[in-house]
Design a protein that fits this description.
By secondary structure, this protein is α+β, with helices and mostly antiparallel strands. The protein folds into four domains: 222 residues, no CATH class; 121 residues, Hepatocyte Growth Factor, CATH 3.50.4; 88 residues, 2-Layer Sandwich (Phosphorylase Kinase, domain 1), CATH 3.30.200; 167 residues, Transferase(Phosphotransferase), domain 1 (Orthogonal Bundle), CATH 1.10.510.10. It contains nine helices and 39 strands. The strands form eleven sheets. Strands 30-34-35-33-32-31 form a six-stranded mixed sheet, with helices on both faces. A hairpin with a 7-residue loop joins strand 5 and strand 6. Helix 6 runs antiparallel to helix 8. The longest helix has 47 residues. 35% of the residues are buried.
């Protein structure tokens, strides 16, 4: 399948006496059908307007019939609409042109005054006239991918390449006539800014011998044609001869290679095409696993070098390193790094996707790609005893008797310990239940593990799961109050520290936008927290589920309530707290759909005289502020960054990264990152802006944060 882009086509058409004939008039109430009366010709027969077959359907086109070996489409009506069947009708009335089909009625030419006649002109322009023969509509005003002689592409107007040879839908490139007089070519998926230009030039002079055309060849081209030379076409100028120059020719995570003068798209190492045969669809990993999961039994990661390639990407961290090996190692050891671009002593750590890649053999740049590989299956190192069968049987007998004796001793000890533990637990439960009853004024309360088993029916109903904990539904006060019981599953040193942090933070924090801690259990390796139950799940559950999507006013109310909770943590509680792990999954919704902040296990507490801290990276990929990766001191502005990502998700009602949408929309924050903490407002100012109390300032220019390598 061919892939289309924009091509600037200029040709000289020298017409003979046939072209001087008057226009062919079409009266109102005339119509076309795909089979019986498919088109209206210009007077010389050079152009044709009407139905043309495309695949299993029909489209309405203007076609250049002469000179080219095949019919050449120069204009398309309703370019991105579905094709119509052979029973469709194109009707010309005083109200304009309308297309009637089984899908309904669609306007092709809408006018504000009555039309009297129409004509397919020899210039390639289809026009509608009023009763005074004044033009009330013309196809020249709505160019698709072609500019014909005498047609103008005005400042601010665009031409779009076609997606297929039929020219029936919009492609992946655009040509812009800028107000500064330049014609500039961009990928459709990229913003109209300098880093994404792949061609720019002063506009050629316009006149009878000039046509601007976006065609199959991916470049701006000038063609010359004359009837005096038997209709032969030849290229006399093109914006580029290199077919890999246009950015976006190859999709995400793939790069362009020139082979035998043709462009070919290749996937990154460890990736495969998302849609085989469609180069613009990009590539995805052939092994999907959590790069940041340290205990992955099935996969490991290596770095593979891709030399002599250029990419256009934002780097979340840039390191000054003298050699490629250091860059390779720096990315491999950073779980958030999925690729690293090395050039001239600069190592730029990247998140996927990599965009606008191409191989250039004259550059020394290298890309290092993190590739997942399956671990080989473990083999049992069993040492088989040597010797005759008799010796083997004796050895087995001795080992069996030993294990039987040892097992009997363990069984006796276990029975004694179990009996004592039950007696002790019974006494402890009685003591706890006798000393104090649950009361909001004295929470959080200590609980025995056996109480929590009973409260959760032996941890029967799971309602949530995280990286290091599982949450179960429980009841207390004789079934009158629902609770959420969070059971930490990792009991290593970091788990104990996380548990203690969450106890300290939530135990002394009281705010309507924070989930309330009701109790806890600290029984050796058993570490459990008891929270108020949030009946509507997390913000992620309602935000990313179409049938539960809240209205705009509800979403803004949710955003304000969340901001109030973080303002409390940052400025209003006794100890300033940096949450460190803000994401929709950590914001829970109560029965009234009010949000409450949860999961403060990774939070960082600051001393009274502290405003910043230095600590190892923590948080969730996609929401982590850039300063974590740069090993800079961390302030509450790290939370502001993460809240900004969540706010984007609330506004757009979709995930920060979503590959189910068109690739140009897949990453919400690709061009809106604010890397410097000093440029971010405080949470108090964020809340005031959300409430409308203060004006929202003009944000920094995103282009200042773009890096190109």
């Amino acid at each position: 399948m061919a892939f289309l882009v924009g091509c600037l086509l200029a040709f000289a058409v020298i017409l003979n006496a046939e072209a001087k004939a008057g226009p062919s008039n079409i009266s109102t109430d005339s119509s076309l059908t795909p089979t019986s009366n498919p088109s209206w010709l210009s007077s010389s027969g050079l152009y044709d307007f009407g139905f043309y077959k495309q695949g299993n359907g029909y489209a309405v086109w203007i076609v250049l019939l002469a000179g080219m070996p095949e019919k050449t489409v120069v204009w398309t009506a309703n370019r991105d609409h579905p094709l119509v069947s052979n029973n469709a009708t194109l009707l010309f009335t005083s109200g304009g042109l309308s297309l009637q089909s089984t899908q309904g009625e669609t306007s092709v030419a809408t006018i504000t005054q009555s039309a009297f006649s129409a004509s397919m002109l020899d210039s390639g322009n289809f026009v509608l006239y009023d009763s005074d023969q004044e033009i009330v509509w013309q196809s020249f005003d709505l160019p698709t991918d072609t500019i014909l002689p005498k047609q103008r592409l005005r400042a601010g107007e665009l031409l779009y390449s076609a997606k297929s040879e039929s020219n029936s839908s919009t492609g992946i490139f655009r040509l812009s006539m800028q107000t500064d007089g330049n014609l500039v070519q961009f990928p459709v998926s990229a913003p109209a800014s300098t880093p994404y230009e792949y061609y720019t030039s002063k506009t050629p002079g316009t006149g009878e011998n000039v046509t601007l055309n976006l065609d199959m060849e991916f470049f701006a081209c000038t063609y010359s044609y004359s009837l005096k030379h038997n209709g032969n076409w030849s290229v006399v100028w093109s914006s580029t001869r290199d077919k890999c120059d246009p950015l976006g020719l190859c999709g995400f995570n793939s790069y362009c290679v020139t082979r035998d003068m043709e462009a070919e798209c290749k996937c990154l190492p460890g990736f495969e095409s998302i849609t085989p045969g469609d180069q613009t669809s990009g590539c995805g990993r052939n092994i999907v696993a959590d790069i940041c999961k340290s205990e992955n039994e099935n996969f490991t990661y290596i770095m593979e070098e891709l030399p002599s390639t250029r990419w256009q990407n934002f780097a979340y961290m840039t390191l000054s390193l003298s050699d490629k090996e250091g860059c390779n190692k720096a990315c491999l050891e950073d779980c958030n790094c999925e690729a690293a671009l090395f050039a001239d002593g600069s190592c730029r750590k990247q998140r996927l996707p990599l965009t606008y890649g191409r191989r250039m053999l004259n550059i020394s740049n290298s890309a290092f790609i993190k590739v997942g590989i399956s671990k080989p299956p473990a083999t049992d190192n069993i040492i088989h005893p040597k010797g005759n069968k008799k010796e083997s049987r004796v050895a087995v007998l001795i080992v069996g008797v030993s294990f039987t004796a040892f097992g009997s001793i363990l069984l006796v000890i276990s029975v004694i310990v179990f009996w004592k533990h039950n007696v002790w637990a019974y006494k402890r439960m009685n003591k706890l239940n006798g000393d104090v009853e649950w009361n909001e004024d004295v929470a959080p309360l200590p609980y025995a593990y056996e109480q929590l088993e009973k409260m959760t029916d032996n941890f029967k109903e799971e309602v949530g799961r995280g990286a290091s904990a599982t949450v179960y539904k429980g009841v207390m006060l004789s079934g009158q109050k629902l609770v959420a019981v969070k059971k930490l599953e990792k009991v290593a040193a970091e788990g104990a520290k996380e548990f203690e942090t969450e106890m300290k933070v939530i135990g002394r924090s009281h705010h309507r936008s924070l989930v309330r801690l009701l109790g806890y259990c600290l029984d050796g390796p058993k570490k459990i927290l008891v929270y108020e139950y949030m009946s509507n799940g997390s913000l992620a559950d309602i935000l990313f589920t179409p049938e539960r999507k809240p209205y705009w006013e509800e979403r803004m109310g949710i955003a304000r309530n969340i901001a109030q909770g973080f303002l409390y943590l940052h400025e209003e509680c006794d100890t300033q707290i940096i949450h460190c792990d803000i994401k929709p999954q950590n914001i829970l919704m109560d029965e009234y759909m009010c949000p409450k902040i949860s999961d403060l296990g990774l939070a960082k507490l600051l001393q009274q005289d502290q405003t910043r801290t230095t600590t190892g990276i923590r948080g969730t990929k996609g929401y982590v502020a850039p300063e974590w990766h740069r090993k800079m001191p961390i302030t509450v502005k790290a939370d502001v960054y993460s809240f900004g990502i969540v706010l984007l998700e609330i506004v757009c009602c979709r995930r920060n990264v979503d590959w189910s949408v068109p690739k140009e929309e897949a990453i919400l924050d690709e061009l809106v990152r604010v890397g410097e903490p000093s440029l971010r407002p405080s949470m108090k100012k964020v809340l005031l802006m959300l409430e409308g109390t203060v004006d929202i300032p003009i944000p920094p220019n995103p282009s200042s944060f773009l890096n190109t390598i």
